[in-house]
Structures are given as C-alpha cells and as structure tokens.
Amino acid sequence: MKKVLALILALVMSLSLVACGGGSSAKLRFVTGGESGTYYAFGSVIAQHATNNAGINVVGLVGNGSQANIEELQAGNADLAFCQSDVMAYAYEGTNIFDAKVDCFSTVAALYTEQVQIVTVDPSIKTVADLKGKNVSIGAAGSGVFFNAVDILGAYGLDVEKDINPTYQSFGDSADALKDGKIDAAFIVAGAPTNAITDLATTKAVSLVSLDDEHIDKLLASSPYYTKCTIPADVYGLDADTTTVGVGAVILARDDVSEDAIYALCADIFDNAADLVSSHAKYGELSLEYAASITSVPYHAGAVKYFAEHNMTVAGK
Length: 317
Known about the structure:
The structure is a single chain. By secondary structure, this protein is α/β, with parallel strands linked by helices. It has helices at 2-18, 38-53, 66-75, 85-93, 145-155, 171-179, 195-200, 213-222, 259-271, 288-291, 301-309, and strands at residues 27-31, 57-61, 80-84, 105-120, 135-137, 165-167, 185-190, 207-208, 227-231, 242-254. Strands 1, 2, 3, 4, 5, 6, 7, 8, 9 and 10 form a 10-stranded mixed sheet that branches.
C-alpha cells in the first residue's frame, strides 16, 4: 500500500509540473542578459545586494535575451528573469514569437526604460532610411531586439530580409563587429549607458541614429507598447541628444516563488534605491509609480503585498 501511495503522489507531482517546468529552489536563480548589457550588470548588483541584506539567496546568471529568459522560467531553470515589456506580453498572450501561451510567471516590477539604440561608426548613416543595403546587427536569436528592429525598420518602409543584410549578434559581439568593420550598424535595446556602446566609444567615433517624429508617431500607432524617449548627448559624449523609442525593463518571477521572497526582493530594491546609485546608476531611475505600471501581466502576490503597503494597487493573480 505504501508503494502504491508513493507512486500516486509522484504521479500527481509530475503532472503538476508539466505545464510550466519544475518548482523554484531555495536559491533564486535570476537570469539576466549578456555580459555586455545592462540586464547583466544591474541584475548582478540586485542579486548580490539582496543576498547580503534581504534574507534571500539570489544568484545572477547570464541570459540570452527576453524570449530565452521566458523559456528558462517555463522550463524551471530560472526563478527570476529580466524581460522586455513587449516580449513578456507576447509570451503571456501566446503571440508573435510564442506559439502558445506561457503563463507560469508574474510581474515583480518594472524598473526602467530600455531605449532602442541604433549605433554606428559610419558617419554617412544619419537616419534609419540610410540603413538600406547596409550590414546591420538586429540582436541575438531569442532576444526582443529582433522584433524592435522589425518594428522600427517597418515604420520606415524597410524589410529586414530584403532591404538590409541582417546579422544576429549579442550586444558585445555587435560592438566587436562594428569595431572590426564587419557591420555598419547595430540595434541595441538596453538602458543607456550600455557597456557595449561605452566600450566601443573608447576606440571609435560612435554615433546614434535618431528617429523623427513622423515615423515615431507611425510606430506608436501600430505598436503602443513603445514610448518616445531621449538619450541625452552627455550619456555617450555625443554632439546632440538622440530621439528614439523605448520599452520597459521588467523583472518577472515564476508563480511558485514564495510570496515572502518576492516581497523581500521588492523591499530591498526600492527601499534602498536612493542609497545604491553609486553601485549602479539605474537605481537612480527607479520609481514606485513606474514599477507598478504594468498592465499586460498580473503581479506576483509578494509584489502585490509590497505595493499595497505603499498605497498602490496592482492586479495580481
């Protein structure tokens, strides 16, 4: 009888894990981004500070882009993940790059705006239209950058496959290819300043391509998850500000991560932000209002509790 009961219990447990991978571990695995991007740099700082001060054990891991991070959550290989706000909506709705709905995760908080940065070292490239016929990196496979590139190029009437010569590279690889003259421009979607661009600027005269208002309006009409934003000239030591669009950088958590752990993570990030700007500049961009602004994916119970204590109501599961 004991063997029968054990088999039944094992079967029930295995069925409960089929839809969305295995459960979370005592160590919260936080999948971030490539080593040259803001996700990895900021995520590593968040993980270390939470581990040292919040009574939770968080480890920052290298990630392969927003889509790949969602898939790591789904497979049970990660408990926390950075993700672009557009890609998390695709996953939750089962659209675009996702063939089926993925709903085993919840929102923890939106942290900052990720600007679409079109970087080049070719002085002849001054507008998006100038990318026609050029060798352009449009992001690593599995990243949200590809769809951002498709959207922006499309607003200018350019087709990714027909009008440019696309390559699929990470931020760091894109910067190296620009440095070596292998590509003419690269789409990099990350919070500015981004290490890959900052490092490139130490050896090359870089410039960022601005979007004009007419095409931004066209893009926002078809893709309302973008917002118009500006990258100040002094961020990279350029001659002028860059006008572009951005999406949100959001932390996600598997639903089976404990409420207490996510509450502690939220408290550690936001209660200490003002004192941690020296450890990473992105802390200076955090606000509770922006953190609670996501509507496409419900919030984790621990986040709901944290925001409620600060008189903010967010939709939970």
